[in-house]
Amino acid sequence: MATTTVYDWIIVSVYDRYDKNDDNTFVGKVLYGFVLDDQTYRFAPNDYVTSSRIEKCDLKRGIIETHSGSVYVLHGTGTDAAIDFRDFELLRMGYSPIQIAQLNTASNGMIH
Fold first, then answer.
1. What is the dihedral of CA 20, 55, 70, 17, to 10 degrees?
2. What whole-number distance in Å separates Cα of residue 25 and Cα of residue 33?
3. SS3 sequence, the chain?
4. Full-model pTM
5. Which of 15, 42, 84, 87 lies deepest, with the highest CB count within 10 Å?
């Protein structure tokens, strides 16, 4: 099975608010990180990657399987974060959750 190995990885929880009276609703988790090695030949070393929704996550073994069938190997220590669904495209474009938070703070929410 071909895998993609990532470092500086973050498991990102995505939340959505369907209306102003609704609490944040959990949508799913995705993996964000940087490519160390890619046996699938989709990514170059040091590219960022944002996965599809995580289906299986084994942190003890350091393996994540996604909705699209991709398998990621986690290298080193990672972290977790949360973002709003409205910011998901920023994540897909390569902005980290920390950068997204900084954009939202600096723009006072006006970036959207």
1. 0
2. 24
3. CCCEEEEEEEEEEEEECCCCCCCCEEEEEEEEEEEEEECCCCCCCCCEEECCCEEEEECCCCEEEECCCCEEEECCCCEEEEEEHHHHHHHHCCCCHHHHHHHHHHHCCCCC
4. 0.90
5. 87
